[in-house]
């Protein structure tokens, strides 16, 4: 795991150890907690229009920051449990996405790659 993920991983390890929470942090439980935090992030935008979601007030933005941090911290903790290098995984996934979504075929489209695969 690379910096800053390594530093955050180490801090999360220490935080959990101080509270004896490692017993609860199985990959399954962390993945489940991650989905809860992602839902809490979605809740920050629930009922907002597209325009409102792009112009959050300071209270809304603070809540969004907190939920983004929660999501990221659970991802870092899960990655640490499974020995996944987040940065390397992200770069590898970007390469896969570039292959699945060639710019010349998908530019301006939100369709899933399976809808245009037959055109390749």
UniProtKB/TrEMBL annotation:
Q: Name one Pfam family in it.
A: MazG-like
Q: Which Gene3D superfamilies match?
A: MazG-like
Q: Do you know which CDD domains this protein is assigned to?
A: NTP-PPase_RS21-C6_like (cd11537)
InterPro entries referenced in this protein's UniProt entry, alphabetically: dCTP_Pyrophosphatase, DCTPP
Question: This protein is called what?
Answer: Nucleotide pyrophosphohydrolase
Annotated source species:
Cobetia amphilecti
């Amino acid at each position: 795991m690379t910096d800053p993920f390594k530093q955050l991983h180490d801090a999360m390890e220490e935080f959990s150890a101080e509270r004896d929470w490692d017993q609860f942090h199985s990959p399954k439980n962390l993945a489940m907690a991650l989905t809860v935090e992602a839902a809490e992030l979605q809740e920050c935008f629930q009922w907002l229009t597209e325009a409102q979601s792009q112009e959050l007030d300071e209270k809304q933005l603070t809540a969004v920051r907190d939920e983004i941090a929660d999501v990221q911290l659970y991802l870092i903790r899960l990655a640490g449990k499974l020995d996944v290098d987040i940065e390397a995984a992200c770069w590898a996934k970007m390469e896969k996405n570039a292959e699945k979504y060639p710019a010349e075929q998908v530019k301006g489209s939100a369709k899933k790659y399976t809808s245009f695969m037959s055109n390749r």
